[in-house]
Amino acid sequence: MQLSLLLRYYDPELAHHVFDKLECKPELFAISWFLTIFAHVLPVRKCTVVWDFVFGSGSPEATVCLACAVMLELRDSLMHASDFPTVVSLLSGSFAAMDVLHLLEEASLLLASTPTSVLEPALSDPVTASLVKTSCCCLLSPADIAGLKHNLDSTVDAKVNGSWASKGGVLLLDIRTNDERRRGWGGGQNNLTSSSASAAQQSRNITSMLQANKIISGAVEVAFDTLRGWREEEPIGNEDEHPDDFVMVDAADGRGSEDDDDHHIHREGAMDGEPVLRLLGRPHMLWYPAAPNTNIASSITAASSSSSSSAAFAGAAAISESPHVVIITGTEPEDGQSAVESLQRLGVAKVSMLLGGIKALEAAVPYVVIATT
Amino acid sequence: MASASPTRAKDIPAKIVVLGESAVGKSSLALRFVRRDFIPNQEATIGASFLSRSVSLVDESPPVTIKFEIWDTAGQERYRALAPMYYRGAAGALVVYDITSADSLRKAESWIGELRRNADPQTVVVLVGNKCDLESMRQVSIQQGQDLAEKEELLFYETSAKDGTNVDALFTNLGKTLLSRGVIASGVDRRSTMSRNLQPPGSRTPKSEQQKRCDC
Question: Which residues does the UniProt record annotate as the domain Rhodanese (chain A) (predicted)?
Fold first, then answer.
C-alpha cells in the first residue's frame, strides 16, 4: 500500500498502468523485496550495498523508496508491458542487470523529497487510514504544501520525474460549495464540520460539473496577494523563485460564482491569467484559462486526452507538465474522493486531497490563501 | 505447436495457484512443468513466485493453446494470510501434498476446506500427491489420496517433479477440464467468462471427473 501511494505520487501514470490497468498490485510482486530487504532478488555483492543504504539511512521508509526507485527505473519497459505476466517477470527478473548505486541515488532522492503525508501516512487517523487503504490518491497536509518551498529550492525534485513540484506547479482546486466556502473562509468556522447532506450535494455538484465538462466555472485567481506574500516570505529575495507554482482556482458551482468572479478580478487589478503567466515566464502553464471565463476543465481535458490517446507513453511529457491538482473539500476528506475519481477518469494524473481543509492550510501557509468574501 | 484455427485469436490465459504444506514440492512441480527442470535443493519460496507456460491442446476441436499463469505460493505458515490474494479469481488450484508425509495430506485437506469456503466456486481443484518417486518412504497410499479426491470431487494425480511423472499429464488434463467446464473459453475475456459462470452457482457440479485417476 505504501509503495502504491508513493508511486502514485511520483508517477501516477505508471502507477495507474501497473496497479489499476494490469491489476498488478505490490502485494503480488514486492513481498520478497520487503521481507528480505531485497536479499532474495539481489546477488550478495549488490545486496550488501543496499543494506548499507537501508540501515545507514536510519529510516524505515528507505526500503519502500528503493522499491519505488526500482519501478521508476523500469518505467519504460513497464509502460510497454501489456499484460500481467510481463510486468511480473520484469519486476522479478531485472535485478541482476540493474545499477544498484544508481538506484540508491534515486532512492535517497525520493527519501529526501517526499512529503511526510505520502511517505508516512498518519494511519492512526481513521479518515486518513481509510483513504490510504483505497490508495486512490495521495493526501497532502498543509505542512506538505508549505514544504514545497524547500522542494522548489532544491535540485531534488527537478530530477524526479512527475513529482508534485514538477513544472506544472500545484493547482489548488476548491470544490466546496459557495455556502461551505463562506463558512470556511469568512465565518471562522471549521469547514470540516459540514453536514453529510451538504457533502452529498457537493459531490453531486462536482460530478455534474465534471460530466458537463465544465469542472470549474469560477474564475482563475492568479492570486497577486499570494505571489506577493510568497516573495515576502522568501528571506533571500531571489528573482528566480517560482511563486507562480500556486494558482488558486475557484470551483464553486456556476450560479453563485459570477459575482465572485467580478469581485476577484476587479479587486486584483483585472489581469487575465495568460498574461500573468507569460509575465512570470512559465509558458507551460499557459494552458490555464487565458481569460477569466475560459473553461479550465477543457484545458485540463485537452492536455490529458492528448497524452492518453497517443499510444503507450508518448504523452508522458505532457503529463509531467500538467499541474498537481490538490483538492480542497469543504467536508470530510472522504467526500472529496468522488471528485478525485472523477478527475482521474477525466485523465488528470496527479490528484491529491488536502488534509485538514482550508483553515489548516491558511494557518500553515497563509500566503497561498486569499480571502474571497 | 499453435494451430492456425481462425477462431483462436491468442492463447487462452488460465490462472493457476499452487498451494500446500511447505517442502512438498510446489515450486519443483511448477518448475518441472514450466522449465522441464529439477533442482534438488530448491530454496524456500518467499511470498510467491510467478511462472507461465503455454500448452497446445491439439486434440480439442478446434485446437487451443492455454497459457498457464502459475502462482507458486510459499508453503510456510507465516505466508498463509497471503494465499487469498493468489487464489482469488484462479481458474485452477493445485493442492499439493508429499506422499512421504501424512501430515502434508492433512494440511492439503485444510487447504481444500479453505478453497471451498473462500475461493471462486468455479475454481477447478486438483489434489496432487508429489514425490511419487520416493516409493520406499511412502506414508500416504494412492488409495488415501483417491478417497480424499473422490470425497471432495477433485481431480487427482500422483506426480514426481524429480523424474517428471504425470506433471504434463496433470496440466493437460487440468486445461481440458477448465475448457469443458467453461471456466476458461477461447475468444472470450476470461473474467467475463468467470462471472458469467458464477451466475448459476453450483449448477455444474464436478461429478464426472472421478474416472481421471492417477496411473502412476
Answer: 311-370
